[in-house]
Amino acid sequence: MIASLLLFLLQGAALPNEAEVRAQAWLLHQTPPSAEALRAQWHRAADPAARALLAKSIARGLPAAPVLSEITLDLAQRVLAETASNPQPAAPGEGADQAAFGEGAEQAALRECLAVVTATPPLVDITRLLLARAWSEESCIDSLVRWQVLPESADDPLATALASALQRGWLPAPDQPDLFLGLLRGHAELRVRLLEAQLGTPLDPGLQSAVAELDFGDWTPFAQRALEAVQLDSDWSLPGAVRRLWRDLVLVDFAPGRAQLLQEVFLRHYPWLPPQEVDAIWPQADPAGQRRAMVLLSQMAPAWGYDHLLRYALDPQTAVETRAALIGALLRGGGPEAPQDLRHLLAPSSPRALLRALLNGLRWNLPADLEDDLVALLPRLRTEEAVIAVELLVRICSKETRLQWLSKLAPLPAAARRQILLTAWYSHQEEEQVALFEQLALSARPQDRELGRIGLQAAWDQERVAEFFAAQLELAEERAQVVQLEQLRELRSDAALDVLLRWLGSEAGWQHPQASSYASLLVEEESAEATFLRWWGLGDSLPLAQRDWAASNLAPTHASARAHLLARFPEVSSRTQGMFLSRMEAGSGPADYPFWLEVLRNPDLDDYVRRLAAHLLHRNLPHTGAECLEALQSLRQRSQDAGAAAETMVIWSVLLRGLAVHAHGEILQAAQELVDARPQEDAWQLRRTWMVGLLEREPQDQLHDALAEVRSALTDPQLGELDPLSRPQPQEQTAHAGASALWMQLLNRAEWSEAQDREFAAWLHAGGAAHHPDLLHLLHAALPPSAALTRAGAEDILRATEAPSSFRRPRELPSHPARPLHLQTRSADFFLEVRARFDRGELDALGAALAAARKRWPGDRRSHLWSGWAALAEQHWAEATLAFANARHLSGVQPYPTLEPRLGQHCVAALESGDLTSLQEFLEHEAQAAALLRGRTVNGLFAQLAALVKE
Fold this sequence. Notes:
By secondary structure, the chain is an all-alpha fold.
């Protein structure tokens, strides 16, 4: 079993003579010999390995040669005779002809030939015999399918193999209409498998008329409906097809898997089903059929089948999971009567799944008279359901009760506390709540303080919140001040920063035990300079750690601060050393450069600090030219020490890459010489680092050098061929990793000039099969569009030298017609396509598709949001207003989920009235609204609004 599995995995892998095959195939591709010469060479080849080499070379280099049919037939006859005498695969290593576990060279060659050869009657017959003997089933099936050969009977091994392939998702290519129709007309099992695989994939337009003429009167009900479903997915107009599909889904007990396939099709098309058809079929169904219908109705707009859904939602005989799904559907789309019809299920005796579905659904459909029911239920609920119940209660209870609930949130998880508190505030913005937030913010318990701060941030602007905590900071004793400082830090606002700076600048602030900790957070703030100047003026009376942070802030502009950092550098932590270096870069001069060099050369310092020094040196070229040359000399000396090789590569590669980007003249030349002088064992790693840096230069003047490096890689004899049966050597792994990074950089390069493209393509073609196949494959994948000739040349080489099953060979993927927007299977795909069309300004077809989406996904706010933007673009004010209102209703009460519908409502009001004042105020108040509006005003849409958010 293991040998067979390995054989399967290795099909198409490179064989030991792969390099010779590629070379011969490329030679035949360039200078095709006559058919007589090829026949003569074939008959002279007595050795199996020689025959295999020639056959594979012709199959790759001359796949359309007529002589290939004769050679393939001869090979097939030999393999057929071999399988007859030795049906079991041989063990590894039994003879020189074994190319892989159990497969000889001629068998491997036959697989390649079958993949490209043109069919002849003898070839078809012998391939059927090979399939019957289970030789390389995949190769035989692929060839017979490509030749459009159909099974002769239900017992034909090809029928069994095709059924298995269809089950795995294989489909006839669009250019094989006869094969598709033949399978449909064939025996029942193949027909059903084909239709199952085709569902959800539109038919090729060339098949439409032929399929429409099929007589399927004697087909099974599933096959009939599946064919019509395929036609529906191809966007055909079939009167009554959706009705017939609905009828059979309700009345016919299909196998579960097949029923699911048809249900997915029906849900894509049901918006075109007249509502009266739902009730027309229902009385004809038995209880099982009605239950199937109920499941379908729960996934549609619930208003269509509300009575039926409600009956099953209340039926204790229905599965709990199904009832929960129905309850969710009813509450999201069933109208105001749904909560009243379901409220008696809010009882301790109801299963937990039902209670959770009820509570979640009530978030979108919450009547005001449910308070008593929720209060009575609350003591019996587990934590997850209790959190939702309290969230609902604070929306509908009285002001006094709401405050009581908000004051008792401490035992709940942090996320739940935040959710409930913000829900209460955004539902009812009351002064009493603000007073409670202030009280909580001053509590002795950390969880209460966090809750109070969150509430105040929701209720006030950032300046008012910061001043509140500033006042508390002034009133607090020294020990208690830490609490208010923590609150200010968690605000993370400019106003809070100003408060902290004022406090640190005061005598109480700089003398506080936590002053150093807070000062370290403010080192990079420009607004902190005045505060740190006051500190610096205190001289030696300031604690040493605080002097360090003050000096760090002042280092770009004050020489005394820089001198302090240099003196303190050896004594502080690595993190602090990094801060010192970063602050010293601004305002640096010749006196700093030698220090950076010494940091880079000091092996006792942390790697993080040394890398920062390397960045400083190359970023400040040309001023640091002398120091960079000294650094390169140190690197050359150190690279000769084998024990320091790893340290050298990790630390110094940062400098080399930076020099590749920034250096010129003598420094660039010195760095290039150092890279070229590296030992072979790690040359690729350093060359990769160097080339990536060269490719980042501005202006991009190093593409010629990069292409030279590509040439070097493609012809590097050190790489050789990788043996698929053995683990690659470390240098091979390094080479391929380095080459991959290099090719990916090429992908993002500037436009190739026409001359560069032509020159490189000619060189590439001249080398042909001599290029390393892995690297050639990576190059083909990474080339930019401007390198059209080079890309075509790489593709030509790979097609002529790689086996048909090789992963390196460029694939020609079949093209299927794009699925119409309203037939998108998944909501995520549908709305992604809607956004793409909206961004392109293609609004013509969106109206009907979005109308269907609102029926298909009534509880999905995206269908209403995009309807609002589309209506707004068409200046249909009433439609846009309604759509954004529905989207806001489905978005809850929290500020972020409701941001887009609120923005849409402001946009409608602004465009309809012509007054942009209210919209401007909204954009100033909501920090993320401008970015959101910028994304909706693309491609010339809403020109007036785009001017408000122009970057």
